[in-house]
Write a structure and sequence with these properties.
This protein has 441 residues and is of the alpha/beta class. It has 2 domains: 125 residues, Aspartate Aminotransferase, domain 1 (Alpha-Beta Complex); 276 residues, 3-Layer(aba) Sandwich (Aspartate Aminotransferase, domain 2), CATH 3.40.640. Helices cover 39% and strands 16% of the residues. It contains 16 helices and 15 strands. The strands form 3 sheets. A 7-stranded mixed sheet has the order 4-10-9-8-7-5-6, sandwiched between helices. It has a 4-stranded mixed sheet with strand order 1-2-3-13. Strands 11-12-15-14 form a 4-stranded antiparallel sheet, with helices on one face. β11 and β12 form a beta hairpin. The structure holds pyridoxal-5'-phosphate. Pyridoxal-5'-phosphate (PLP) binds next to α6.
Length: 441
Amino acid sequence: MSQSAARSNDPLIHHWMPFTANKQFHEAPRIIARAEGVHYWNTSGEKLLDAVSGLYTTPAGHGRREIREAVSRQLEELDYAPPFQYGVPGAFRLAHELAQMLPAGLNRVFFAGGGSEAVESALKVAIQYHRVRGQGQRQRFVGRARGYHGVNFAGWSVGGMVKNRDAFGLGLPGVSHMRHTHIEANRFTMGQGEHGGIDLADDLQRMIDLYGADTIAACIVEPIAGSTGILVPPQGYLERLRAICDKHGILLIFDEVICGFGRTGHAFAADAFGVTPDMMTMAKAITNGNIPMAAIAVREDIQQTILDAAGPDAIEFFHGYTYSGHPVACAAALATLKIYRDDDLFGRAAALAPKFLERIAGMRDLSMVIDTRGYGLLGAVDLAADGTPGKRGFAILRKAFEHGLVLRVTGDTVIFSPMFITTEDQLDEMFDGLRAVLKTV
Ligand SMILES: Cc1ncc(COP(=O)(O)O)c(C=O)c1O
């Protein structure tokens, strides 16, 4: 039998897995078959502790009955309706509820299917907003090194992750990147570092000096950069970005796809840091990860400007997705927001955060640990590379799975984002598990 014929019998081969070493995976698959609460089970029935809330998606725990029932009811009542020129009740209800939760002024909500789509939507709103005000020359975007804004063309262009860019050509023109905020002076800081905030934010001013403020549409940042290893903004940083944007008419977009819905101990990172953006993207925990969904929140006057610029019967924003405001996703999101409120889960996240950060900081005693940092229920442990960068990180991911622990690794950084329902004993289990794994790599 030829090698390709033999391979075509491999039951795993047809699924091209995202952000995965596919060839390696086939040699040693890590397949998750069941979940409940803070646990998964693999196909052999072994229990695993989920230290990352799915993929930052599931802070209320896996298998929530309330969401399952809401989804099931919705499927019986209305499975789907077209979102263009028609509406479904749940989408209006959800937008209204989100508007009550969001920072004041951010009260117009546009739905998308995932975080990447939300980012594209926000960037397009920014361009159109300036254009209808006669400022169509504002076409540039400013992002940040080590930022992650999803994988679509505009998103990876404004993002600053080298591997996500380098196989895919030129991307969006007119994008500049500020420096990232992970600096030596703030190493081993829990919470916001004391150093560098103003100087790093002044990178935006340097872009303005170089290109002209009136060419820049928006500046987009994750308040805490998640995917590149929990980079917490130094003190004063977000405030300075806000001030520069205000001075120069540049829109500030917070990508809260990871930070949103309680991860910082507040509803949004904007609340935690006391800085309100002009637009915000959300996804992941909006449905507790149960159904794909994302949203952008837009300042009321930005939406109004776009609506006013169009004729009375005209479509104002030529943009939308087949699954914008999907009724089943809306039902899942409404049930999720109710759980967050009823169980005071953001309060629980805030209460657990100091204990969690203490354990992250406690990893410092290991000689291979070169930095620890965190904020709320987001934490990261940087490890010294073992020869090739990323080799040690990947070994940890694999061994942790064998050890019964699901965590997230980027390069040689281990990321934790526990569920808000995690107990202190389970935190101990996570960090004892990591220590045991680190002894083997
Ligand atoms: C900050 C941020 N923006 C955007 C995205 C993209 O979201 P999605 O994978 O749902 O497209 C992510 C995903 O992790 C993210 O962390």
